[in-house]
Amino acid sequence: MRNSRVPPAGQASAPEPAGSPRGGGLRRWDLVGRRNLWFAISLLVILPGLYAWATRGLNQGIDFTGGGLITYELAQRIPAGQDIAVIRQARDSLKRAGVEARVQIARQAMGKDQLLVRTQIGEKEARPGQVLEEQKKTVLAEMSKLLPGLREVDAWTVTPVVSKQLLANALKAVAFGCLFILFWVWVRYAGVQWGFCALVALVHDVLLLLGVFALTQKEINSPFVAAALTVVGYSVHDTIVIFDRIRENLRLRKGSTFAETANISLLETMPRSINTVLTTEMVLVAAFFFGGASLRDFTFAMIVGVTTGAYSSIFNASQLMVVLKNREERKLATKRGQAARQAARQAAPTTRKAAPAAAPPAPAPRAKTAPASDPETADTAAQEEPAAAAGSSPPPGDRTSAARAARKKLRASGKRKRRF
Fold it and tell me: What is the pLDDT of residue 43?
């Protein structure tokens, strides 16, 4: 039975330190110690998307490729599971008619399904509008054979010049956004390491988002760029919250290592991050299923981006910061050890024991002189003093020091007599 100590009356119990094992099961999780596992999971998720991007490419929309976009409304709903077969038949029939196009079926939660046909128009075409009118006639004739009763809803064209400008502006927006974030984090935390870790998390989120769209072959268009920028801002927001808690705990936990402080900070901010992600994704899932075809790709990109943004903030940015700080601490410890060894080598010759100096010769004992009242003793002392002086005469320096000592002794004895 565990002995629980109860504090005396009127005395509050001392609060448990942050990170104590008695604080609950969550406190015992070692997230930092498994950082290689989190890095491996991110790599395994990103690599398939990059492979699909390199082999199959991205399904660029009309905003980036240029051409015509024709929207048809279907008279009947296509049965579930037959979408891929209908799209393949429509693409093959248009290719036999001489029209290069991409076909997509957009299901509506309320209303009839729609058929989206994106046709290609040459970059050097002088009259893209006239070409689109000819393509519309061909597409309508071929699609009516496959899906009777369809009706044209909308048709518009985008020139290649506008598409290239949109693509360049999208890339500039993402690049400048990342640079501004890096600069601000660098200034805010007075260190380039914090900004570098936040930037790595952003690159992770963008690559994973592009990889998912390459795997699913969903359309890359202007709403996708808006979703990517929103994901970048959301990821940085979550990363900054964790970095702030780490910096706050660094001031409170002076005796802990950076890894221990980072682990406690992650455990303290994890409930907040999970709650924020779940509440955000609830709204996005509702918009994905009930928002219509125009919002479906945007909300899908947001769902993927919000999820990977929360993951990268906890399991990538902070863990990478631990790796950099551990390396910095090892380098500092190595430099201190080298400095200590160098100081020891420099101090070694001066710590040798010096040879003891030769003791000065002891002064020769002086013969005692009898008081002047005893004439016989005075005569004997007068005869012995010259003999002693002739036998062993002390050096002049010793005689001087002995005289000084005698005078001091006499003065001291006189002072004691006057005092008492």
Answer: 92
Per-residue confidence (pLDDT) for residue 381, from 0 to 100 = 44
Residue type at 229 in one-letter notation: L
The CA-based angle 154-288-111, given to 5 degrees, is 45
How confident is the model at residue 414, as a pLDDT? 59
Q: pTM value? A: 0.61
Predicted local confidence at residue 51, as pLDDT: 92
Would you kindly state where each structural domain of the chain is located, as residue ranges?
Answer: 24-57+163-341, 67-158
Nearest alpha-carbon partner for 101 in 53, 147, 150, 134? 134
Structure tokens at 410: 């006499």
DSSP-based three-state secondary structure for 81? coil
Among 82, 18, 93, which residue's Cα sits nearest to residue 251? 18
pLDDT confidence of residue 16: 43
In 3D space, the residue among 271, 267, 258, 248 whose CA is nearest the CA of residue 21 turns out to be: 267
Tokens for 86, please give them: 């209908």
Say if strands 67-73 and 151-158 run parallel, antiparallel, or are unpaired. antiparallel
**How far is Cα 243 from Cα 189, in angstroms, rounded to an integer?**
9
Say whether domain 67-158 belongs to CATH 3.30.70.3400. yes
Strand ranges, E, within 66-132: 67-73, 101-106, 114-119
**Residue numbers in the chain where pLDDT is lower than 50:** 1-25, 354, 367-392, 416-420
Half-sphere exposure of 6 (CA within 13 A, CB side): 3
pLDDT, residue 48, reads: 92
Could you write out the DSSP letters of every residue in 250-311? HHH-TTS-HHHHHHHHHHHHHHHHHHHHHHHHHHHHHHHHHS-HHHHHHHHHHHHHHHHHHH
Give residue for tokens 């015509």. Answer: 68
CATH among 1.20.1640.10, 3.40.50.720, 2.60.40.10, 1.10.940.10 for 24-57+163-341? 1.20.1640.10
Of residues 110, 106, 109, 99, the one with CA closest to residue 143: 99
| Confidence (pLDDT) at 370 | 42
Q: What is the pLDDT of residue 383?
A: 47
DSSP string, 305-341: HHHHHHHHIIIIIHHHHHHHHHHHHHHHHHHHHHHHH
